[in-house]
Amino acid sequence: MDFLEYSDIQAEIKGSMTPGKLKMTDQNIAFKNSKTGKVEQIQVTDLDDVFFQNFAGSLGLRIFLKNGNLFRFAGFKESEKEKLAKYFSSSCKITSLEKELSLKGWNWGTAKFTGSVLSFNVGEKTAFEIPLNYVSQCTSGKNEITMEFHQNDDAPVSLMEMRFFIPQNELAGDTDPVEAFQENVMKKASVINVSGDAIAIFREIHCLTPRGRYDIKIFNTFFQLHGKTFDYKIPMSTVLRLFILPHRDQRQIFFVISLDPPIKQGQTRYHFLVLLFRQDEEETIELPFSEEELKSKFEDRLEKEISGPTYEVLGKVMKAIINRKITGPGSFIGHSGTPAVGCSYKAAAGFLYPLERGFIYIHKPPIHIRFDEIASVNYARGGGNTRSFDFEIELKSGTVHTFSSIEKEEYAKLFDFISSKKLHVKNRGKNEKASYKDDFGDSDNEGAPDAYLERVKAEGQEREEESEDESTDEDFNPDAAGSDKGDDSKTSESSSEGEEDA
Predict the structure, then answer these.
(1) Complete DSSP assignment for 137-169
(2) pTM exceeding 0.70
(3) How far are the Cα atoms of 206, 270, 275, 315 from residue 366, in angstroms, in the given order?
(4) Average of pLDDT values for 344-359?
(5) How far apart are CA 419 and CA 404, in angstroms?
């Protein structure tokens, strides 16, 4: 068997069924999140147990790894059951995929910790399981444990907390069962505790989103944003992408960190951190590691002492710890000579950056659009003003992002970029006549003439000719107007009479 591939599978992530694509090969199982583009890979050699589970209207899989992690996938058809069983039998030597669950609904049972999963068993059967890395906090009382959970913005209903009553057991001896329960949870829970010294500290960094000045402290597993009002501890595992983008004024640099899940400030969620640096800002830091530790931990990706522009130093440290690439501007250069296209999104002005694999808009609000999300793009007129145009991006989900007030000079550059990326161009035409319907042609045909640009030039020429005709008013001879003379005199007489009456 070469591989199995499914294009419409949901993965359970923090209580929400997230759509994506699943590919199962002899080496690994890969799930690509349709919303974020993040790819999660499970090596076949890491599998411990696999069980079928019935979800509402579909078949599902519960996959346990040797390190104790649990993955749940749903959306398989019943007819696929035999193929899946054959795959796990041949690739992983796992033959028993059936496991009966408890359907009694009792709330009295036994808690069993296996790796990073807490199983609640009624008798010999499992009633439910809780991945402990979803736990954000665990507190204990006299006979009670309270667990709080990280929230998923995509979940229509979220489990906020769960409480367990633990009776005192005389057979437990000196061990307190409540403390033992809490200790087992905290070992695997996703709770950030500041311990040890920071790897690097950057003071008074200008942050556009969320707005303010923050000290950035970088630790092994998370980084901290410490401001006057708010303090955030952000796990490194939540960082999706890093971007370094030059400002259009060529004196400043945007450093953008994409997060999933986002950080929260009250009811506001921030999926992106947008930091702003001046290009001439310099920074020198000394890492608290020996040469041997740097070589073993970071494989020579970091030096003991790092100096240079502040954004570069921050980028080097983040890149080495997170082990992700930093995305910069692509081959696109706009009319201004920079990779930034000035535009407006809704009521705010900002910059649109065409990248090699998508677009990113900075900064209010930051928007990242991957090419594989795009259904079509459209060039539209900005309310009849030929000096600017609107650029619309329609996603496969149906959402439309409109970037307006783009300078006319950017059109040819943007058109060439869209053509080179083979994106589908659809012209709806705002306030346009029927003859404008096919102005933009086919984006796949790079040799096609740019009809919209030609039409704009023609209209400009017509206006110039009209203005020249209007400027010859001194040649007008009222005596040559014929029968209109009498009408003009009557009009002037009546107007003078009106003035006298007034």
Answers:
(1) EEEE-SSEEEEEE---TT-SS---EEEEE----
(2) no
(3) 16, 9, 12, 19
(4) 90
(5) 20
